[in-house]
Specification:
heterodimer; A: 274 residues; mainly alpha; MetI-like fold; 2 domains; flat; B: 265 residues; Rossmann fold; 6-stranded mixed beta sheet; 7 helices; binds adenosine-5'-triphosphate; binds magnesium ion
Amino acid sequence: MTMSKKRAIRKQQDSNQEINKVRNRFGLGLLAFMILIVLWEIIARFSGWSVDIFPDPITVIISLGELIADGTLLRHTVASLFRVTAGFYLAIILGIPLGIFLGRLDSMRYFLNPVIQFLRPISPLAWIPLAMLWFGIGDPPAIFLIFLSSFFPLVVSTTVAVTNINRTFFQVASNFNFNSMEMMTKLILPGIMPEVVIALRITVTIAWLVVVAAEMIAVQSGLGYLILDSRNALRMDYVMDAMIVIGLIGLLLDHLMNGIGNRESTRWGTASGY
Amino acid sequence: MGHIKIENLTKIYLNRRSRPRSQFEPDDCTDDNVLVLNDINLEFEEGEMVCILGPSGCGKSTLLRIIAGFEKSTYGKVRVGGKKISGPSAQSIFVFQHSGLLPWMTVAQNVGLGLRFMKDEPEKENKISEYIEMVELEGFESYYPYQLSGGMKRRAELARALAVNPDLLIMDEPFSGLDFLTHMKMREEVVNMHEFLNKTTLVVTHDIDDALIMGDRVVVMSGRPSTIKLIKKMEFSRPRDFERDSDLSRLRSELFLMLGVPYAV
Ligand SMILES: Nc1ncnc2c1ncn2[C@@H]1O[C@H](COP(=O)(O)OP(=O)(O)OP(=O)(O)O)[C@@H](O)[C@H]1O
Ligand SMILES: [Mg+2]
């Protein structure tokens, strides 16, 4: 075998494992961040705005160190993550079963769908006054708002996913005498998994958007509160620190959800042929 | 067990009206009701391989779905093994016209579907690999259906059906979409398996040569509303070759004619 042939095979193996691609992709992403920071520095230096109005990257990073060192940032981040987790899990626990139920029972779907479609486009933020009135201040109203933001999209996506399962598979199930437990574990759950994972990925982002907004109103902790509090103290560098952490965590959440989506047994739906 | 008797079977599909009934229409207007099967009488013996031919859309799949219990007849009786069918069951396994493999299960898991009540794990594993070997898919046990070619999917589904050891095997165009050589090989495999296991097998096909080579009995259906045009017991010895056997080649021309093609090309 000639040298060049070997190299060609090697090259294909590399690209099969997507090592090169991933390396390139990661590098490109990082480059965009660098450009962003450079632009930021340029604007800060030449716009004529003072540090109090438009802090430069170095100031922001130094103050980020301060917030990390005195534990403020960790406390607020944990508070926000707790609220998102609680509200999001609540939405999953109630929304996915309801979605399956509506997907399986036509009459219930015709009964409830109009109401769900009516409630869904109302922004969770519109519920803030009522949430505060009903649940007081503190965690409950914030968790309720997160729950609302994720619940309706999850119900709708799950319902659609169930109705989209190929009818042939239900015939296969009855042909092989599936009981109702097996219908759930061997047919419905795996059948809706690819679509539900996509829905989870989208809703977790929405939930993260909403928690920050909710924390500006109802609570005394969390990254949203940190932004509001820093603004009142005219510390724009802290505001930017909070924004950076919010962005990083959003990136992380999306990455985690993507990880679930890439697992073999949930990926069948995106593969060709089905 | 696998004896099938069909009496006066009629199937009408009621289609939902897209527009309201006009006042000029008579009340018994049946424009939107599709009469698919019209008074079908058939009887198949235990262990027979029956090939069903007919023009597209005539109701072959519908007939099979009724026999499998997926759908109810409008009139008439269908008995399998002397019993009226009450619904789908593992006694009659259906091989679907478009793949019926569950896409989230591997080949081994799919084949194991009919064996999942077996208590003895090692024996179950043995059974699964036995059937996978039977269709020559060894090495692909842990593949998902999307990783298989069309022919491999077909074979996996066949293995899954055979593993159940059903009284009745129902195949809706099992060779459609296969290339010529795979088609030939699969056909041979099905014939061999039938010789070996002797299950009552119903095969819908649009290929006259399939029917001539495989069938213990050939049934020809007319276009919709469908009636039975021909039921013929095939007493030819196997392997069959319609180029040598003049009776067989005469039957072939007859079937071509019956299905609306004047010359056996
Ligand atoms: N669920 C249904 N509702 C209404 N009409 C139907 C339904 N299923 C089938 N039909 C009609 O019944 C007729 C027969 O359909 P069927 O699928 O049995 O045909 P087929 O003989 O298997 O055709 P092909 O060889 O093309 O597969 C068709 O005209 C079809 O439009
Ligand atoms: Mg058909």
